[in-house]
Amino acid sequence: MTKGSHVSIQGIDKFYGHNQILDDINLEFTAGSYVVVLGPSGSGKTTLLAILGGFVEATRGSVVIDGTDVTNVTPSKRPTTTVFQDYALFPHMSVGQNVGFGLAMRGIKGDERQQQIEEALELVGLPHVADRNVTTLSGGQRQRVALARALVVKPQVLLLDEPLGALDLKLRRQMQEELAHLQHTVGTTFIHVTHDQEEAMALADSIVILRDGRVEDSGEPERLYTRPATEFSAVFMGDSNVLPAHASANASGGCDINIDGLAASFDTHVKVPKEVLVSIRPEYLRVDRAGEVDLGVWRIQEKHFLGPIQRLVLAMGESQLNLALPPTHNVTIGEDVHISVDKNSIALFTREGKSA
Amino acid sequence: MRLRWIRGLIPTLYLVLIYAFILLPVAVLVLFSFQATALPIPPFNGPSLRWYEELFADDRMISALWHSVIVGVISALLATLVGFLAAYALTRFRPRGSQVLRGLIMSPLGVSYLVIGFGLSISANQLALGKSLWMVIVGHVVVNMPLAFAIIMSQIKEEDISYEKAARDLGAGEFTVIFRVVTPILAPGLLAAFLLAFTLSWDEFIISLLLTQFDVTLPVEIWSALRTGLNPQTNAAGTLVFVISVVVLVSAYAFTRRRKGART
Question: A-chain residues within 8 Å CB-CB of B185?
Fold first, then answer.
């Protein structure tokens, strides 16, 4: 249908009174990509989306879409449309009238409008509902109508504000796949706000993690998951074992890490010996000696069967580790196992949680 | 045992008395409008529609009735329109000092009709406008607009702002937002405000009396009929005023209920 646009967010600050909601946000989104802005509530993600849509004015900074500064352009004139959290389908209009609203505003009439409405509804998998009343639709169907209504006017950028938040888990996972597919089909740049990291990873070409109005980390989901920039993003992007450790420079320009008496060498350079945090994903831990870093012998304290994986809680002295194993791996509670991990599965942070 | 029985009786008796106190005068008025004889006093002879026939044959009464309808419809339309615009502006745009503005809009409610009617009558004289049904319409807008404003304000929901955002997002200008989104969504509240403003205008006497001369409204006509003596035809006119008020008020109530129900 349309080609997506490049979105550039330049030095955006937002204050409500003395309350700073967004602090110097600078982001570049590639044309036609699926971007997910991820953050806990209060991180400023919805405000950022409202600034992109033109509903909220930034205190400073600008929004540039395909080289055009749209900072002072009203929502009705922006090349963006929004799928609202509560869908905001007009209750006094039929499905077709809802989808056709934007077309009517653009002066598209009669058969042409009707045809585009049908096409948009077909695109979201809801053909033949144009005459229905929106109040008779299910949550999932409303979601699709909201998508059709926003996409039918061929925006350059589609903004989605927690679009799946109101759906139950199963429907949410299904809609995720459809959203990804839809974005692929239409090629519009999607900017999607959520607090659900699974949703983010399932959908995004690129993820931005916001925390307290600042960009904590941004990049491809895989990089964010395997090599998080900060402890916050490590923990926010899924389970992680965070252990205190001591780091000191070694002869080869890297550093030696000492976790509870267990030593490992890293390529990361540290200037002076310091206390650090070591973060390891539960599924990267190995129940053998084959990993590059030997973590010693741990006792299995708990075992939980979770379907695709089993989760183990391991203990050594005061320390605990979470470990995820395929359920085919036979272990028993109370058993002592040897644990190791590969170096590139370990992320190092300063004690403040910043990249070490 | 007996004591408890009496104790149960007291609240019931109290309720009966209260309702009798409120409704008995109306009931008597309505009952004697069906009187077959010439005086609306006991004993009741009837029922008969004789006085209703005479009422509808009375040109003065019928023209007063039409005047009331016209004044009611026009003043209620204006009160609803102005009240809606004020309520929408104050809730959506929250201008500086909106609390003060709100107080000013509501202030006519605290002023007696006598003062408002008297004031308008003097102003009309000063401006050489004279007394007319148009001045009554002005007076009724003044007293009913605050009520329309309050009703509509209570019906504007904070969360409905997302419909307006969605409309703007899809390219609608402010007029389109108001006419195609805000007004239809608020329709039950607007209708309720209109109906209430209509009944209040329909019943209103003092302002109408002070601002009319030759063409009068129904309550004023009834009042002058009462001055010439008791007559079941006046009862019939009063009953008509009462019945129309009740019908309109019940519909107003039903519309506000519908608006609330639609959201749950």
Answer: 90-92
